[in-house]
Input
Amino acid sequence: MRKLIFILFISFFLFNLSAIDSVEQLKSSLHKLKGIEKAKILYKLASQSDSLEITEKIEYCTQAKKIALNLDNDELLSDILLLESEIIKETNDIEKYSLSMEKYIKLYKKITQLEMESYKKQVSKQIKIRNSFMIGFLIILNIAIIVFARYRIKTVDQIKLERANKQLDELSRIDPLTSISNRRDILEKIEYETLRFERNKKIFSLVMGDIDNFKAVNDNYGHECGDYVLKALVETIILSLRKQDIVARWGGEEFILLLPETDLEGGRIAAEKVRSNIEQNKFIYNKKRIPITITFGVTEYSSNKDVNGCIKEADSALYKGKNKGRNRVEIYNTEDILIG
Output
């Protein structure tokens, strides 16, 4: 037990000795420095030197203030005044502490573009102290109100505006007829998949589809029938795909499928499943069966492609299928000519 007490005593002594040495080193460097560097050392002595008396710390603050005033450095002066206030607070001298806080608040007003000199001429010393505390309180209260209002309070108008903006954003990403993603939305999702590919090497495939002879459907049965076919076809595609797969309307009777974590062969198999289900599906409009088929072009994303290039490859494979007779799935190869 005595040994432990002795060790603790020696440790405490050495710690204080090292602190004293550090303070002495800072003091010895003062005569070599000028301007803001000297002010910073004085500030450091006053803020970090536990071995100094309070009067000595205040003296260092006073010297640092003179330098900051001469340099017109309001930021440094503000830090010094705040430190001085904290030091004076330790003396339990309320009057001096109040006076120090008053100076700090005045400077804060100057930094926020209020004229400190006109303020000095308007009120007496006691009124200035009282008003300074009031201003400080109001500043803190206003900041608290602003923060609270920003993060907690939402007026009815704000809520309505946020909901309206959210609805507008959703509408701008959804095809109004089929209620699936539109071109803008699917492009953003494809970009996200490219980022996943760069990070985790998660491959994905794109499938471009076009309804065969869709113009004839509109011409023979009317545009209302054409709309029915588009919506019914989308339902068939969704039921044929996985939950993580995404179908979007590219434009008119064209659709694009995004198949995450699917290679070229997997994309071909998925597209063939969709094609087959569409061919077998009974599209009935006004008690008439409308024969519908679709042609797909499939490509796989890789590091040497960009999104536009990948879409062009799927489009190229699609039109290769059209030229071969429609109602089929074609995969892209390097011999295909990009459709651009």
